[in-house]
Every structure is written in structure tokens, then in C-alpha cells.
Amino acid sequence: MVIKGDKLAKKKLSQLKQKVKKNGSKIQLDILYIGKSTASDIFIRNKRVAAESLGIKVNIHEFKKDIFHEIIRATCNNLNFNPNCTGYFFQLPIRKDLVEENVLDFIDPAKDVDGLTSTNLGRSIKNVKGALRPATVEAIISILNELKVRLKSKVVTIINDSNLIGKPLSTYLLGKGATVNVCNEFTKDLSSFTKEADIIVSAVGKANLVVEEMVKDKAIVIDAGITKVKGKTVGDVDFENVSKKAGAISPVPGGVGPLTVVCLLENLVKIYETNKE
User: Fold this and answer.
1) Is residue 106, in this structure, part of any structural domain at all?
2) Could you tell me if residue 86 is inside a domain?
3) 57-63 and 28-34: which strand pairing?
4) Which residues does residue 220 pair with via DSSP β-bridges, in sequence order?
5) d(Cα 85, Cα 57) in Å, to the nearest integer?
6) Residue that terminates a domain, selected from 93, 119, 145
7) CB burial of residue 69 (10 Å; 0-12, 13-18, 19+)
8) Could you report the per-residue pLDDT of 236-263, keeping only the tens digit for each?
């Protein structure tokens, strides 16, 4: 079975449109974009098109790659206190030194659409009710919900150990009673973890990292990786061969990606509804 993330995204987008319509055109999304790249251009365009299709206003703040972190802090402060800005996020990846500076914590947690501030990550790791999780994590959860997967006692292998996916997703799954292995692309004998998994989630951006012999029969395989091979967008999973063996598998493109965009906008609407109370 091929998991049609784009189809599920359209369904969720339609439901979200009703919520946005109820709130009028008062919701605004701001995006901080540091240094241009072809991939980020595509991601931002997709988010903008989806948001504007709902009637959400989008502002993009572009900075040159060598921007000083003091200017970024000032921009964040302005957005934190701007009543017109519902929520905002940094288009990732950003410069390594900015990561080390922890510029994501310049964002007011109440406007943290990506759920990546220390406050919101802590809340999601503690499974606090109503906590905002990163959009990719919400997209993966949406797929599992759509498949009606009973997570209790399931063995899950996540190939990603980041704050963006691996850590918050593993905490969510553990909270549902799953047994979780968190790996990365450097894990020794990775197949020993994937072969035993009922569910595999891979998100490292390495083509053919997961191949047929690494997957047990009828396993659910969710591919959240993305990379380019000879100009073609592919995921981490050898889709052609693994799809013959898996019980369900998400393609790249058309799987997790479209859902991530919608889940980001769902977070934005949640922020608006929470803050207007």
C-alpha cells in the first residue's frame, strides 16, 4: 500500500480552511530566510502557496548568508511584539554558528510555529497536552493515525536523532506504549534495528539508506528523507523494491512533505486560537 500523503494533505487543508474562515483574515505567518538555496526556495514557495490558499497573510524576511546574529535577534524581537504576527519560524537549515548561538530561542514560544524553541521542545518531550510539535513529527503522526495503527507494543526504528524529528517523535511514540530505537546514518549494523521493526521512520537525506533486505514483511515504512540524485528528488528508502515487501510505504515526493506544510499551518492556527482566548 502506498501512503498518499498529498491526498491526506488536501483533506486536512480543506478542514483547516474552515477554521481559518471562521477566524477571518487575521492570521499572519512570518518566515525568516537566511541565505538562499534552491531547496529552501521550493519549501518556502510551497508553504506560502498553501497559506495564501487559506487566506493567511505571509511575510518573508530574507537575509544574506553572512547576516549578524544581532540583526536576527532584533528582527525576532520586533516579531515577538508585533500584534499582527501570529507566528513565525526560521527556514532551516541555518548557519552552524547560528545554531550554536541558539537563535531559535529568540522566538517567543507563544509564536513558535515549528515548535523548536527550548520551551516548546521541552513541553513536547514531556508530552504536555496542547504542546506544539515540529510539523514533520505531526505529519508522521497524521500518517500513523490515518493508517489506524495501534502503537502499543509496536517496535519502531527511527533513523534520525535530531530535535526536529527523532527526539520529539520518539517521546510521542514511547508515550503511546511503543518500543523505540533511535538511530542515525552512522549507526553500526543499522539493519539489525530495522529488521525487527514494525514501523520504520527514516529522515536523514541519504538515498537508498533503507533497502529491501533491511525491512521485514508487512512493515510500515515512512520516508521523511529528501535528497537529489541526478536531478531527481528521492527519499532515504529504495521505494521500488521496498514497496514490494512493506505493508505500507510513503513515497518521496508526495508523502510526508505535503503533510508537513499543512501541519505547520495547523500549528499556526492553534497559536492564533490559543492567543485570542
Assistant:
1) yes
2) yes
3) parallel
4) 199, 248
5) 9
6) 119
7) middle
8) 999 999 999 999 999 999 999 999 999 9
Cα dist. 128→36, 119, 122, 149, 167 in Å?
35, 11, 9, 22, 15
DSSP 8-class letter at 35:
S
pLDDT of 98: 85
Closest residue by Cα to residue 29 from 3, 6, 55: 55
- Whether omega for the bond prior to residue 168 falls within 30 degrees of 0, making it cis, is no
Under-70 pLDDT residues of the chain? 23-25, 277
Which residues constitute the domain of residue 202? 136-257
The sign of the torsion formed by the CA atoms of 32, 38, 42, 45 equals positive
Is 192 part of any domain?
yes
Residue with cell 506560502: 48
Distance CA 112, CA 268 (A): 8
> Amino acid identity, residue 65?
K
Please report the pLDDT score of residue 78 as a whole number.
98
Q: What is the pLDDT of residue 24?
A: 64
Q: Which grid coordinates belong to 130?
A: 496542547
Q: What is the pLDDT of residue 128?
A: 84
d(CA 22, CA 143): 26
Residues 68 and 164 in one domain: no
